[in-house]
């Protein structure tokens, strides 16, 4: 098997809270499993015991935007080193519920935190060796939905955490943050129109995966 065929695939799912991304993780995992692939399903913040501890703090404790950004990237560093890089090296599919685009969308666009600082942290955390490209997902499925619709879907569905309790205006900025990241890297992002019934959302997700030729 050549190097190219041995390399794993790194796929992230993104979108504002309530956009519907988690609803499709099982089906994506099944598709790859049916194609004979090892799937490592994980999430951010989280994915390791250390990062899951940081997640609990991030979702529940008040803190300033720099602290929030540092904790998000500290969790990410542990996750990258302990889980993501080893899985990709052995050829697995890494299916990650959120990655760094969420930081640019939530801490950057949502909180208004300095994007240059986030870019520096991104480089520290995701650069595998000097001069090498940053570790990024090969495909980011961006579930795009208006904040009002997402809020309606979440109402009554679960107890809001510190992010989900934010007003619609916050999520409008987060959505714009995702749109900017997608415009910067159109080849990496697949925009999924999430404002439709589940089956139609799934059809778009499946098409984005088929297009990459990973399910043969
Ligand atoms: N296409 C859809 N139409 C209507 N409701 C949906 C759809 N997809 C998901 N939901 C519901 O919306 C809520 C949020 O979905 P979820 O997948 O948890 O979102 P996310 O992981 O993006 O926060 C859940 O109650 C889910 O059952
Ligand atoms: C990865 C990441 C998540 N978040 C936020 C977005 C979400 O509101 C929250 C947790 O994400 P998520 O796992 O989607 O929440 P849930 O399990 O409730 O659907 O963390 C950031 O603010 N910055 C980040 O870098």
TrEMBL record:
Gene Ontology BP terms: dTDP biosynthetic process; dTTP biosynthetic process; dUDP biosynthetic process
GO cellular component term, pick one: cytosol
UniProt keywords, alphabetically: ATP-binding, Kinase, Nucleotide biosynthesis, Nucleotide-binding, Transferase
Keyword Nucleus found: no
Family annotation (Gene3D superfamilies): P-loop containing nucleotide triphosphate hydrolases
One of the Pfam families matching this protein, by short name: Thymidylate_kin
Enzyme Commission number(s) from the entry: 2.7.4.9
Superkingdom of origin organism: Bacteria
GO MF entries: ATP binding; dTMP kinase activity
Catalytically driven reaction(s): dTMP + ATP = dTDP + ADP
Residues given in the record as ATP binding sites: 15-22
Domain Thymidylate kinase-like: start-end pairs: 13-202
First-tier enzyme category under EC: transferase
Family to which the UniProt record says this protein belongs: Belongs to the thymidylate kinase family.
NCBIfam families the UniProt entry points to: DTMP_kinase
Role noted for this protein: Phosphorylation of dTMP to form dTDP in both de novo and salvage pathways of dTTP synthesis.
Protein name (Swiss-Prot/TrEMBL): Thymidylate kinase
Source species: Pseudacidovorax intermedius
Encoding gene, per UniProt annotation: tmk
């Amino acid at each position: 098997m050549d190097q190219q065929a041995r390399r794993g695939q790194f796929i992230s799912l993104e979108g504002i809270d309530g956009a519907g991304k988690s609803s499709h993780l099982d089906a994506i995992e099944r598709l790859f499993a049916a194609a004979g692939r090892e799937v490592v399903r994980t999430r951010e913040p989280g994915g390791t015991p250390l990062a899951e501890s940081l997640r609990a703090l991030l979702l529940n404790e008040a803190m300033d935007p720099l602290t929030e950004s540092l904790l998000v990237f500290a969790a990410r560093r542990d996750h990258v080193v302990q889980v993501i890089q080893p899985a990709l090296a052995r050829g697995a599919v890494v299916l990650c519920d959120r990655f760094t685009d969420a930081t640019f969308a939530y801490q950057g666009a949502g909180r208004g935190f300095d994007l240059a600082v986030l870019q520096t942290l991104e480089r520290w955390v995701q650069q595998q060796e000097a001069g090498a490209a940053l570790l990024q997902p090969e495909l980011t499925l961006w579930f795009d939905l208006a904040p009002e619709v997402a809020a309606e879907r979440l109402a009554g569905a679960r107890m809001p955490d510190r992010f989900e309790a934010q007003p619609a205006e916050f999520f409008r900025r987060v959505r714009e943050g995702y749109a900017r990241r997608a415009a910067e890297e159109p080849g990496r992002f697949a925009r999924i129109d999430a404002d439709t019934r589940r089956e139609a959302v799934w059809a778009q997700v499946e098409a984005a995966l088929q297009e990459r030729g990973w399910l043969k």
